[in-house]
Design brief:
Blueprint: H1 9-32, H2 50-68, E1 80-83, E2 97-106, H3 112-125, E3 129-134, E4 144-148, E5 155-160, E6 166-172, H4 179-182
Antiparallel strand pairs: 1-2, 2-6, 3-4, 4-5, 5-6
Helix pairs in contact: 1-2, 2-3
Length: 187
């Protein structure tokens, strides 16, 4: 005798939405970052405007929040754009930049470990390397998950923040080159 589990339309719809969100993230990421592994420090930088990088980071944090079952707070987000600086302080005149983007969510302390667990599992499933992971007791929330994409080199951080019942979902891009700097008259 064969048993078939009933199909729940709600679960099917949730799985479909999650799949589409992951597909959107990967498709958008492909437009933002190189999908082929680099060979070294002299590889060409991914080309993306500040607006495109910020939109991608917003989509990624929304994807993380949805996977964790939390809502991003409706409060202003101040993206941090920084110039790319080499390890010896060198810089290029082409306006290359990194983006640090962080969104907050009000999450009861008792749910912080569950949130980082869900995000960790999502990111591992999407091919990111988990570089740090910590769960802490509810009374002292300091839960976190850090991950890095192996080829695109962006970093994701979801962690408890100072104060109770609050978490941050953040993304840091590698060095990006704005479109105007991608083609020079000397080329």
């Amino acid at each position: 005798m064969t048993y078939h589990l009933p199909v729940h339309p709600h679960r099917t719809a949730v799985r479909a939405r999650r799949f589409l969100a992951a597909l959107l993230m990967v498709t958008t990421l492909g437009a933002c970052m190189s999908s082929t592994p680099g060979t070294g420090k002299d590889d060409p930088l991914p080309v993306k405007s500040r607006e495109e990088a910020q939109a991608w980071a917003r989509q990624l944090t929304e994807h993380l929040a949805q996977a964790a079952g939390i809502q991003i707070n409706d409060e202003p987000i101040s993206p941090g754009f920084n110039s790319c600086v080499g390890k010896n302080g060198e810089s290029a005149p082409d306006d290359r930049f990194t983006l640090s983007y962080g969104a907050h969510s009000n999450v009861p302390n008792a749910q912080h470990n569950d949130v980082v667990r869900k995000v960790r599992d999502l990111l591992k499933g999407e091919g990111l390397d988990i570089t740090d992971y910590r769960e802490m007791p509810d009374r002292s929330p300091q839960s976190l998950v850090f991950a890095r994409h192996p080829t695109s080199r962006y970093v994701v951080d979801v962690s408890s923040t100072a104060g109770d019942d609050r978490m941050v979902l953040s993304v840091i891009t590698p060095c990006l080159k704005p479109p105007s700097a991608s083609s020079s008259p000397d080329s």
